[in-house]
Amino acid sequence: MVNIKDYPEIEKLPEADMLLSIFDRQRKLQEEYHEIQMKELSHFEPDKTPVDINSHLGQDQIRQRFFWTIIELGEAVDCLKNKPWKQSMVETDVDHFREEVADALHFFIEGCILAGITASELFSSYMRKSEVNKFRQRSKY
Prior knowledge:
Blueprint: H1 15-40, H2 56-78, H3 94-114, H4 119-138
């Protein structure tokens, strides 16, 4: 099986370009998998990216990607074996943990793309929500 240990570090990009690069790469990967999805997923809407977020099929496709995100996060959490109540320590396979987190990000970004959320919109929503959270901290909400 191939995993991230089989690939060298990727060239670092300016931070401002990182999220956009992730979205662009995921969009290209989706395009390459489109034919496979058409064969394997009977409910896959052809040539619809973004999907119709108001339709049953569109919502199902988005829901699946976010569900798969949760599954991958669960796999990442499963890599963390040291519990507060355990007296013995187990060394963590950090590469495996990071790979599962990257898998979760893969499906999360794919869900965003299917929902019509761009990197810029995600960034903006995140920053705006961060301001809400900072306000809540200041106001002891």
